[in-house]
Amino acid sequence: MDPIQLLLEGVLDHVRPLTDGAPAAYIPELATADPDHLALAVVGPRGRIFSVGDDHIEFSIQSISKPFVLALALQEHGLDAVLQRVGAEPSGEPFNAISLEARTGRPANPMVNAGAIATSALVSGDDIDERTGRIVDMLSAFAGRSLWIDEGVYRSESETGFRNRALAHLMRSYGIVDGSVDTAVETYFRQCSILVTVKDLAIMAGTLAFGGINPVTGRRVVTEAIARDVLSIMASCGMYDFSGEWMLRVGLPAKSGVSGGLLAAAPSQFGVASFSPRLDEHGNSVRSTAVMERLSTSFGMHVF
Ligand code: DON
């Protein structure tokens, strides 16, 4: 076996005994995930992919969509216009908190739900389909293949997304979200329901790590400036109310999602992603977090 593959298998063996936590239950469709799934993928500068474990399993991207939709909003409007609608400060609060500035209603950052809904609402398009189409195209370019939406997860999210709807209505009252709240929120639910594998996530992280160029397709997806902006936000806000400790322990810009995915970018070196559905109290995957800690300490990946 390839030595890198063997090394990655060793990391999975190390975290496999961790069985704390449980798959997300607040979206019924996510509760049906096999809690034992475990996978890890790494992509290097020339697009070589190494993956181990359940690397063929597809799962919904959930909050890991947020940095890539931020990239799209930055591409369409530029940094200053985006910052008018959503801040760049870590909230120190859970992902679904009402993290809105008291006076302006501006959400703390684009990685918490409120900020992600505001960011998604910046994507141009006349209706849900047109906006979702743009988002799917952008995420597909990051992944280097055509991605699809899991309609079952979308329905499940839409049927239970009362809190996200409330956040969107609040932001609509402040003028942070324009137009139809339904369009904003359903587009956000659809972006969260895009299916990916751990390899897709590693390539998406790699595209950010390599300055906006997809290391597998060789295609430029976003400018270097946008890749840098997105990584900066991930570094300070990507792991919710664990972001500070994450930076201390792992030291890489990263993003997690409630289906158990987690990606991280080692600038100019590689993109990495891991998948395991059991979550901790922050909504981050227990084993995926342990995988990244192990990789970072064993291979000196901390950016500092
Ligand atoms: O907004 C939600 O509830 C989900 N669709 C996404 C949240 C999420 O993935 C938070 N991550 N840990």
TrEMBL record:
Enzyme Commission no: 3.5.1.2
Q: Which reaction does it catalyse?
A: L-glutamine + H2O = L-glutamate + NH4(+)
- Residues annotated as transmembrane: none
- Uppermost EC category: hydrolase
Coiled-coil blocks: none
Q: Which GO terms describe its biological process?
A: glutamate biosynthetic process; L-glutamine catabolic process
Chain sites annotated for binding substrate: 63, 113, 157, 164, 188, 240, 258
* Molecular function in Gene Ontology: glutaminase activity
The UniProt keyword set, sorted, is:
Acetylation, Hydrolase
Report quaternary structure and partners. Homotetramer.
Tell me its family.
Belongs to the glutaminase family.
Which protein, by its recorded name, is this? Glutaminase
Q: What species is given as this protein's source?
A: Microbacterium rhizomatis
Coverage span on the entire protein: 1 to 304 of 391
